[in-house]
Write a structure and sequence with these properties.
Shape: globular
Number of domains: 3
Number of strands: 44
Number of helices: 4
CATH class of the largest domain: Mainly Beta
Helix content: under 10%
Largest sheet: 22 strands, antiparallel, barrel
CATH topology of the largest domain: Maltoporin, Chain A
C-alpha cells in the first residue's frame, strides 16, 4: 500500500486548487424533504441553491441535504416534471441546521413532449443495492451506476458489454458459452453476488438486459447487508418500473450471424385515481454464432405492477421469466497446457448437444412511510430455475487431447432444479440524536434454497475425432440414452439480523458503523441409483460481519475515506476430528478519495484495498492424510489493488467515462500450491474508456456517436501447480492481454430512433478459459442495427 500516500496528496492538492479555502463562516446546514399533494415522498426532485451554485436530487425518501454553507440568505428552487416549480427564500444561521418540508403541487398544464437533462455525477446517485438512500460521496466504499441512457446508447446485449464500462469487475470465464462468469478484485461473484432488484439471481445462464433500467456495482464487502457474499463485490440488475403515464416502445434489432431480436415495452396507469400502474416488457432473440453449428433461441417477459394502497403505502410486484436454449460450446481445447491454434469458427462438439435453461422470479416489495423520516419495507421473493446440459464432456475433462490432436469424445448429462425463497424486513430512518444526523437501517432476512442435481452416467468413447482435421460428416450423430447415477439434494437455510448507521458527526466528518450476524444450515443428501443408498452430511455455521468506515469531507464535493469490513465463506469437509469445518473469515481494508470538480462536471475517484483470507481452507496433511475432504484453516490468500474511476460531462451532449485497475491476488500461505503464485482468471491490469456525444440543436440535432474500449491484461487459467505432488504435471495457461473497441452510431428524431453498432472493430482474438477444458474465443468483428418507435 506504499503508493497510497502520494496519490492521496495529489487528490488533496486538487481539492485545494479547485475550491476556495473553507472559512469558519461555512458551518450552516440545510436539510429537507419533498412530498407531493398526497403526502408521499417524491424522489428525483431537482433542488437548487441559486446563490451557492449547488444542485442535488432528492433520494427515495424525498430527502436532500446541503452542508458547509455560509450563514446568509439563499434562493431555493425545487422542480420536477409535471409539478409547479417551487421557489423559496431561506435564511441560514451560523452553527444551525435549517429543516424544511416542501410540498409540490401538480401542474394543470398539458405536457406534450418532455426532454429531461441533467448532470448528476457518479458520486451523487444512490444505489438500490445499498438498501439506504446514501449518496456514494458519503460511503466509505467504491460504487458505480450505469444508467439506462448509457446502456441504450451503447446498445448493450450482454453483461460483457456492460462491463466494458468498469474496471476491477470483469468476465472471468464463459464456460460452455452458455454463461458469463463475473469476478471482481480477484474473487468470483457467482449467484450469491448477483442480484436483481436486490434479490439473489441465478447467473449460470446468460442474463437478459432489455428490461433493465440500470446496473449497479458495489465493490468490496457487502456482507453486512446480504450475508454470505464473496469478497469482491456485488452486481445488481435494476428492472424497469411501472409508470402512471401512458406510453411504451417497440423495437427490432438485427445483426451478424442471423441475429433477430424484436422487443416491446408498454406502461400505463389504471383509472383516474392513480392507484394502480402496470408495465410489461419482453423480447424474443434468435441467432447463430461465428462458431459453426452453434445457435441459440430465447424469450423473456417482465411484467410489474405498482399499487398505491394509501397515502403512505406502496406495493410493488415484479416478475420475470426467461427461457434460453443454446448449443453448448467448450471451445478449442488445450494440448500440453497450450491453447490449440484452430480456426476461430471451428466447433468440436457433437451436433445434437443442448443446454436448456429457464428462470422464473416474483418479488413483492411493500413500503410503508411511517412519517417523513421513517419507513418500513418488507420484501418477499420466490425464484426457481431449471437447467439441462446434454452434450459431450469438456476437452481434457473426460479424456485428454493427445499431442497429435486425437480426442475421444465422452457424453455427459446433468440436470439441476432449484427453488429459492426470501423474506426480508427493514426499518429505515433518519433521526437527529445528540446533535448528529443518523441514517439508520435495522433489518432481518431469511432465505432458503433447495437444489436438486441429477448426474447421469457418462458414456465413455462415444466417438473419436482429430481436432486438426476437417469435420467428418460420417461421425456418429445418434443421441444416446444415459441412466441416472446420483441425485444430490442440497437444502440451505439462512437467517441474518443486521444494523447499520451512517452518522453525520459534523459537516466534515461521517462515520459508518454496522454489524450483522448470520446463521446458516447446509445439508447434502446424495442418493446413488445403483446402490439405492443415501449419504448425508450437514453443517451448521454462524458468523459475525462487522463494518466500520470514516469519511472526511473538506468540502461539499470532496471526500477521503477509510474502512474495515469482514465477510465469511462457508467451507465443505471436516477437520481431523471429523467435525464440520467452520467458515473462513475474510478481512477487507479500503482507503480512497472521491472528488467532484467544476460543479460536478468531472468526477475523479481513487480506491486502494487489501483483502485477506488468513484462514483459507486446505487439505490437512496431518498424519499423512491424503483425503481432500479432511481439511484445516491454515492457508492464506491476499488481494491488493488500486482502482481509478473518471467521469465527465464537460460540454452539453458530451460525456466521458474511464478508469484503471491493478489487482494482485496470490497464495500467501499454502500447503497445496506454490506460495506467492497467482490465483487464476484475474487480470493484473484492466482499463476502460468511453465517449458518448449527442448533437442537441441545429441541423444535425439527434445525431449520436460513441466509442468504448476495454483493456484486459494478462491472466492465467489452467491448473495451479501442487507442491504436495512430486513432479506435478499441472501448469498454468497464460492468456495474453487484449484491447477491444466498439463503435456506436445513432439518430433520434421525435419518436423514432435508428442505431448501429460495430463491435470489436480491430477483430482482436482472445479467449475466456476455465481450467484447461473450456477455451472460448471472444466474438470477432460484428455489427448490429436497431430501429425503435416510442409512443
Amino acid at each position: 500500500m506504499r503508493f497510497f500516500l502520494p496519490i492521496q496528496l495529489f487528490f488533496t492538492l486538487l481539492v485545494v486548487l479547485q475550491s476556495p479555502i473553507v472559512s469558519m463562516a461555512q458551518n450552516a446546514a440545510l436539510q429537507g424533504t419533498v412530498t407531493n399533494q398526497k403526502g408521499l415522498p417524491t424522489s428525483g426532485v431537482h433542488i437548487q441553491l441559486l446563490e451557492a451554485n449547488l444542485v442535488q436530487q432528492t433520494d427515495e425518501n424525498g430527502s436532500f441535504a446541503f452542508q458547509e454553507l455560509s450563514a446568509k440568505t439563499y434562493t431555493l428552487k425545487a422542480s420536477f416534471v409535471g409539478y409547479v416549480t417551487l421557489e423559496k427564500t431561506i435564511t441560514l444561521e451560523a452553527n444551525k441546521t435549517l429543516q424544511l418540508s416542501l410540498e409540490l403541487v401538480e401542474s394543470n398544464v398539458e405536457l406534450k413532449e418532455i426532454v429531461v437533462k441533467g448532470a448528476f455525477s457518479q458520486n451523487e446517485r444512490p444505489v438500490n443495492i445499498g438498501k439506504l438512500p446514501i449518496r456514494p460521496l458519503d460511503l466509505p466504499q467504491s460504487v458505480m451506476t450505469l444508467d439506462k441512457t448509457l446502456l441504450e446508447a451503447q446498445q448493450v446485449l450482454r453483461i460483457s458489454d456492460v462491463l466494458m464500462n468498469t474496471n476491477g469487475v470483469y468476465v472471468m470465464g464463459t464456460t460452455g458459452g452458455y454463461q458469463e462468469e463475473i469476478a471482481g478484485r480477484g474473487f468470483a461473484f457467482g449467484s450469491s453476488n448477483t442480484f436483481k432488484n436486490g434479490v439473489r439471481f441465478f447467473n449460470g445462464m446468460i442474463s437478459e438486459l432489455s428490461g433493465l433500467e440500470k446496473v449497479e456495482i458495489l465493490k468490496g464487502s457487502a456482507a453486512i447487508l446480504y450475508g454470505n457474499v464473496a469478497a469482491g463485490g456485488v452486481l445488481n440488475l435494476v428492472s424497469k418500473k411501472p409508470k402512471f403515464a401512458k406510453g411504451g416502445e417497440i423495437s427490432l434489432r438485427t445483426g451478424s450471424w442471423g441475429l433477430i431480436k424484436p422487443s416491446f415495452d408498454v406502461f400505463t396507469g389504471i383509472g383516474k385515481a392513480e392507484k394502480v400502474a402496470v408495465r410489461i416488457n419482453g423480447t424474443y432473440e434468435q441467432a447463430n454464432s461465428f462458431r459453426q453449428g452453434v445457435s441459440s433461441a430465447r424469450y423473456y417477459i417482465n411484467p410489474s405492477m405498482l399499487f398505491k394502497l394509501g397515502k403512505k403505502t406502496d406495493w410493488l410486484i415484479e416478475s420475470d421469466y426467461l427461457n434460453d436454449e443454446r448449443t453448448p460450446d467448450f471451445g478449442v481445447g488445450i494440448i500440453n497446457y497450450k491453447i490449440v491454434q484452430l480456426p476461430r469458427e471451428k466447433f468440436l462438439g457433437v451436433p445434437w448437444s443442448s443446454f436448456k435453461s429457464n428462470q422464473t422470479s416474483v418479488t413483492s416489495t411493500l413500503t410503508h412511510y411511517l412519517n417523513e423520516r421513517w419507513q418500513v419495507k418488507f420484501t418477499g421473493a420466490l425464484r426457481n430455475y431449471n437447467t439441462d446440459l446434454f452434450a459431450n464432456t469438456r476437452p481434457n475433462a473426460g479424456s485428454l487431447i493427445t499431442a497429435e490432436g486425437r480426442w475421444i469424445r465422452n457424453i455427459q448429462r446433468t440436470t439441476v432444479k432449484e427453488t429459492y425463497g426470501l423474506a426480508q424486513l427493514d426499518l429505515i430512518g433518519n433521526l437527529n440524536l445528540a446533535g448528529m444526523q443518523h441514517q439508520l437501517i435495522l433489518g432481518a432476512d431469511s432465505d432458503h434454497f433447495t437444489t436438486q442435481t441429477t448426474a447421469y452416467r457418462q458414456l465413455a468413447r462415444y466417438d473419436t475425432i482429430n481436432v486438426f482435421a476437417p469435420v467428418n460428416s460420417q461421425l456418429r450423430s445418434d443421441v444416446p440414452t444415459l441412466k441416472e447415477a446420483t441425485l444430490t439434494t442440497a437444502p440451505i437455510s439462512r437467517f441474518g439480523v443486521y444494523v447499520q448507521d451512517l452518522i453525520h458527526v459534523t459537516s466534515y466528518l461521517k462515520v459508518l458503523a454496522g454489524l450483522r450476524y448470520s446463521y446458516q444450515q447446509t445439508r447434502s443428501d446424495v442418493y446413488t441409483y445403483a446402490t439405492q443408498k443415501t449419504t448425508s452430511t450437514a453443517n451448521f455455521d454462524g458468523a459475525f460481519s462487522p463494518k466500520l468506515g470514516i469519511v472526511l469531507q473538506p468540502t461539499q464535493r470532496n471526500a477521503l475515506f477509510a474502512s474495515y469490513s469482514n465477510s465469511f465463506v462457508l467451507n465443505t469437509g471436516v477437520d481431523v476430528n471429523g467435525k464440520a469445518l467452520p467458515p473462513s473469515l475474510i478481512d477487507q481494508f479500503e482507503v480512497g478519495a472521491k472528488n467532484d470538480f467544476w460543479a460536478g462536471k468531472f468526477s475523479a475517484n481513487i480506491t486502494l484495498y487489501r483483502i485477506l483470507n488468513s484462514n483459507l481452507a486446505q487439505t490437512s496433511l496431518a498424519n499423512g492424510n491424503s483425503n481432500p475432504n479432511i481439511r484445516e484453516l491454515a492457508g492464506s490468500v491476499k488481494s491488493d489493488g488500486l482502482e481509478i474511476d473518471l467521469a465527465s460531462k464537460p460540454l452539453q451532449g458530451l460525456s466521458f467515462t474511464g478508469g484503471y485497475s491493478f489487482n494482485e491476488t496470490k497464495y500467501v500461505k499454502s500447503n497445496t500450491f506454490i506460495e506467492g503464485s497467482l490465483l487464476r482468471y484475474n487480470p493484473r491490469h484492466t482499463a476502460n474508456m468511453g465517449f458518448q456525444y449527442q448533437i442537441e440543436s441545429g441541423k444535425w440535432q439527434g445525431f449520436q456517436a460513441g466509442i468504448v474500449g476495454v483493456y484486459i491484461g494478462q491472466r492465467y487459467a489452467g491448473r495451479s501447480t501442487r507442491v504436495t505432488v512430486a513432479n506435478d504435471a499441472y501448469q498454468l495457461v497464460e492468456i495474453p492481454s487484449y484491447v477491444q473497441v466498439d463503435l456506436t452510431l445513432g439518430y433520434v428524431k421525435k419518436h423514432f430512433a435508428l442505431r448501429g453498432k460495430l463491435a470489436n472493430i480491430a477483430n482482436v482474438l482472445s479467449y475466456n478459459v476455465h481450467d484447461d477444458n473450456s477455451v472460448n474465443p471472444i466474438a470477432p468483428r460484428n455489427f448490429s442495427l436497431s430501429a425503435s418507435y416510442r409512443f
